């Protein structure tokens, strides 16, 4: 574990070693006074010893004080270095985690849950601070204190020193047992903590829905179950550790356990002197506190070990299949060939039921589809038929289980995700806005765009009206997750992003989900700007909006049921006829596909 963590310290590794060395010197300085105390006490207790001269007494007292100062200085300096190394390491681990998560399929990342990810990124990585800033240097130093003291004891009187050592084996046995017991319970404890984190984040995010649908009791039940599980697993872990903790905290400081009765006997028998016994008993009292501190660091090791292993596991998940090649496709036609896909659910913590566990059903069952360049293809189908999944696979959020997806004849796995992203604009139902200015949110579409270009895209996306209402216009902040804007306004900002990006392929996933009759015309114009002269894939529930699409593909239960124009499908496809019948009477807006430009 130490090696794993130290591999992230980089050039600051020497700081950690220097901190440990300084603290060790500090420890030596804290033990030296016992020697001077001994030199002061010995002449007092031993009648045959010549009296200590006043000058000798003064310099010994001064040396004791100096040792105290030296200990404080070295300890503070050591702590400073260890913290510097620790916080640089935390930064390195976080950056490394982010770098290793980024190339992983979106499903793998989202599968962890936002609560667990937050816990990993913030809390678990933070706990490495304890290891590097304290457990390692302070632990070593605190372990060294007893070692130094025992050596000093042996120098004074080896027989009494051996008696003082008697408590050590029992104390260390208890510590080892606690460590082993702690490790065996750690998995459940740790995973129940992650699950509780996810549930709490979900509970808070879903508060609105819970309130609206009066589901307080139901969702509180899940919340309560996970909180209870965490309590139970934590207590389970503590209960496994408590008896051993009680044993070592009692036994370890008791260096006098055998040294006092047997030592007194030795003094009476003349095997040892009274001065030596007093000194050894005094030194014994100095062992307990550092030994318990060192061991208390040890008790955190199982937890830390588990967290670091979990971090390593998260970082080592296989990345998305992609190559470093740029886009070299012959055109922007799209081909899905026998695509099969399953969402991989993360298994839950041991003993905790994950609602998705065991339900990893295949979602797409061999989808084959040809989308010509420059055309408008609509994907329709009942809810859950796999339309959005197909769109997400096209933008390579996930890898297919089998089959292939090609853009201009080039497999998506044969190009980098960055290269693919340059070719495709994907506008999802709910586009995420960062809490920065609307200008910067739109500029994400093309980072090198000037303010004027961003403004032009915003105007084309029909944002002018609501931007005029905002006090700072395009420079207004979007708020947390874009909460300062309505759903329709957020949608138009994301359309502006796509207009600015001007990619040759556009995927609109329910892009009109937030359209109301009043904004219908504006949204249609905005979408027309995005899809002008592009290869367009539209996912739509409102069939009236896509009747003029070049091609309509009907998906049913993860398969392509039929493909053709509106007229052809109405004549031939029972699935489409059913959808059309259901759509009749719904919103009356329509797509017209024209050469050189399309309008909705
Ligand atoms: N992240 C996910 N994890 C697990 N299963 C998922 C996930 N997203 C979708 N699914 C499942 O995959 C299937 C297809 O979902 P998809 O969103 O592609 O359907 P859709 O046709 O777009 O539906 P809708 O029209 O309601 O948006 C559904 O059964 C859904 O439950």
UniProtKB/TrEMBL annotation:
It comes from the Bacteria. InterPro entries: AAA+_ATPase, ABC1_TM_dom, ABC1_TM_sf, ABC_transporter-like_ATP-bd, ABC_transporter-like_CS, P-loop_NTPase, Type_1_exporter. The chain crosses the membrane at residues 15-37, 57-76, 162-180, 245-268, 274-292. Keywords: ATP-binding, Membrane, Nucleotide-binding, Transmembrane, Transmembrane helix. Residues 334-582 form the ABC transporter domain. It is a multi-pass membrane protein. Coiled coil: none annotated. SMART domains: AAA. GO terms for molecular function: ATP binding. It is found in: Cell membrane. Residues 18-303 form the ABC transmembrane type-1 domain. Its main location: membrane. This is ABC transporter ATP-binding protein/permease. It comes from Diplocloster modestus.
């Amino acid at each position: 574990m130490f090696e794993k963590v130290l591999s992230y310290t980089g050039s600051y590794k020497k700081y950690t070693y220097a901190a440990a060395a300084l603290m060790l010197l500090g420890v030596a300085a804290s033990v030296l006074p016992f020697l001077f105390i001994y030199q002061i006490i010995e002449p007092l207790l031993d009648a045959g010893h010549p009296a200590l001269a006043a000058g000798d007494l003064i310099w010994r007292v001064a040396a004791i004080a100096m040792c105290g100062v030296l200990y404080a200085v070295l300890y503070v300096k050591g702590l400073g270095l260890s913290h510097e190394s620790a916080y640089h390491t935390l930064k390195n681990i976080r950056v490394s985690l982010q770098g290793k998560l980024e190339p992983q399929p979106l499903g793998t990342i989202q599968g962890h849950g936002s609560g667990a990810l937050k816990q990993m990124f913030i809390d678990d990585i933070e706990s490495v601070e304890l290891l590097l800033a304290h457990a390692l240097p302070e632990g070593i130093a605190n372990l060294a204190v007893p070692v130094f003291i025992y050596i000093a004891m042996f120098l004074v009187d080896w027989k009494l020193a051996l008696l003082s050592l008697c408590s050590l084996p029992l104390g260390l046995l208890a510590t080892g047992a606690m460590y082993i017991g702690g490790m065996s319970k750690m998995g459940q404890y740790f995973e129940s903590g992650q699950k509780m984190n996810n549930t709490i984040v979900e509970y808070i995010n879903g508060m609105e829905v819970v309130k609206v649908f009066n589901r307080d009791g139901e969702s509180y039940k899940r919340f309560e179950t996970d909180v209870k599980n965490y309590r139970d697993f934590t207590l389970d872990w503590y209960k496994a550790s408590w008896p051993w903790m009680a044993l070592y905290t009692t036994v370890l400081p008791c260096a006098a356990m055998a040294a006092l009765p047997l030592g007194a006997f030795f003094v009476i028998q003349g095997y040892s002197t009274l001065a030596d016994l007093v000194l050894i008993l005094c030194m014994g009292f100095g062992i307990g506190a550092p030994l318990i501190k060192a061991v208390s660091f040890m008790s955190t090791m199982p937890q830390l070990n588990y967290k670091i292993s979990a971090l390593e596991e998260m970082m080592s998940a296989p990345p998305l299949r992609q190559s470093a090649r740029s886009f070299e496709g012959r055109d922007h036609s799209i081909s899905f060939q026998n695509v099969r896909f399953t969402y991989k659910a993360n298994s839950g913590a041991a003993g905790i039921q994950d609602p998705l566990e065991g339900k990893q059903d295949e979602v797409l069952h061999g989808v084959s589809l040809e989308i010509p360049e420059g055309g408008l293809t609509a994907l329709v189908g009942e809810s859950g038929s796999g339309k959005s999944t197909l769109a997400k696979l096209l933008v390579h959020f996930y890898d297919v289980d089998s089959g292939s997806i090609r853009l201009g004849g080039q497999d998506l796995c044969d190009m980098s995700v960055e290269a693919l992203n340059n070719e495709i604009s994907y506008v999802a139902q709910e586009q995420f806005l960062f809490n920065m200015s609307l200008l910067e949110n739109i500029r994400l579409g093309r980072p090198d765009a000037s303010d004027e270009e961003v403004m032009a895209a915003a105007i084309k996306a029909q944002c002018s009206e609501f931007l005029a209402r905002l006090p700072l216009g395009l420079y207004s902040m979007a708020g947390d997750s874009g909460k300062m804007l309505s759903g329709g306004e957020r949608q138009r900002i994301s359309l502006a992003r796509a207009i600015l990006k001007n990619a040759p392929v556009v995927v609109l996933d329910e892009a009109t989900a937030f359209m109301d009759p009043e904004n219908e015309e504006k949204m249609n114009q905005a979408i027309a700007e995005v899809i002008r002269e592009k290869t367009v894939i539209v996912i739509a529930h409102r069939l009236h909006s896509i009747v003029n699409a070049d091609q309509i593909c009907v998906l049913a239960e993860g398969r392509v049921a039929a493909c053709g124009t509106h007229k052809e499908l109405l004549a031939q496809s029972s699935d489409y006829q059913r959808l059309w019948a259901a759509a009749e009477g719904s919103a009356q807006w329509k797509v017209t596909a024209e050469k050189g430009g399309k309008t909705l």
